[in-house]
Amino acid sequence: MSSIELKYERSKEGYAELLKQHPFNKKLFNFIILGAFIISIIFSINLILSSRDNALFYNQPVLLNVSSIIIGLLFYIGILVPICFIAYKLGNEWNGRKLFQKYQNVNDNFYFVNFNDAKGEFLIQKGRSTVSVSQKIFVLDTHKYILIYGGKGKKDEAFFITKDGNQEHREKIRQIQHNLKDNTEVLYKHFNNFRYKVIVVCCSVIGFLFIFGFLALYGILHIMG
């Protein structure tokens, strides 16, 4: 076997996942998370400065500093991080719908992918574009898709292969997976969606704790002030 041909439907969900896991977008998201952390530091400093003359903290600067830092961390983990995750998810879903609509408008509703094992390359849309394994491609294996990136740049070729299909399609997917995993020039990873959900849930719980703690501190300051 030297060539595997696949034909499957494009989908909004596939494009959204392709964009969400894109190395360039993930790097940008990490910078946003870093920016959110800086905002939380500024928030903590501002809280220290605005509360330092309160009677409760006047002779207890350590209590003031520690409580402000804790609230700042809760603000970061429980408020800013979930907001960033939600905005990132919604933004990629919106862009995924735009990409899907773009091809739908010209009746290009199917992906045609040919994987040539001998040459080590993917031919997409009957040769319109090519992704060579020798480019040290990045492959992310998710529950529903195989996401393939020709590079980590924004303009590098990227496409998804849906796993859903008949028995023949699934067998071809297994052959492609086996070949890519065995290729030392391919960076092949599995995406753990469960871990992602756990992080979001934990951050949401911490968000509720932040709101409760902030309101409690505000009440104490109001009473002691």
Structural notes for this entry:
By secondary structure, the chain is an alpha+beta fold. It has helices at residues 12-20, 23-51, 61-104, 167-182, 193-224; strands at 3-9, 110-116, 121-124, 129-132, 138-141, 145-149, 158-162, 187-190. Strand 5 (138-141) and strand 6 form a beta hairpin. The mean pLDDT is 80.
Secondary structure blueprint with pairings:
Elements: E1 3-9, H1 12-20, H2 23-51, H3 61-104, E2 110-116, E3 121-124, E4 129-132, E5 138-141, E6 145-149, E7 158-162, H4 167-182, E8 187-190, H5 193-224
Parallel strand pairs: 5-8
Antiparallel strand pairs: 1-2, 2-3, 3-4, 5-6, 6-7
In short:
With 225 residues, the protein is an alpha+beta fold.
Instruction: Please report which band the strand proportion falls in: under 5%, 5-15%, 15-25%, 25-35%, 35-45% or over 45%.
Output: 15-25%
Oligomer: single chain
**What is the straight-line distance between the termini?**
79 Å
- Taking pLDDT < 50 over at least 5 consecutive residues as the criterion, the unreliable ranges are none
Report Rg.
24 Å
Helical content band: 55-70%
DSSP strand tally: 8
Class of secondary structure makeup: alpha+beta
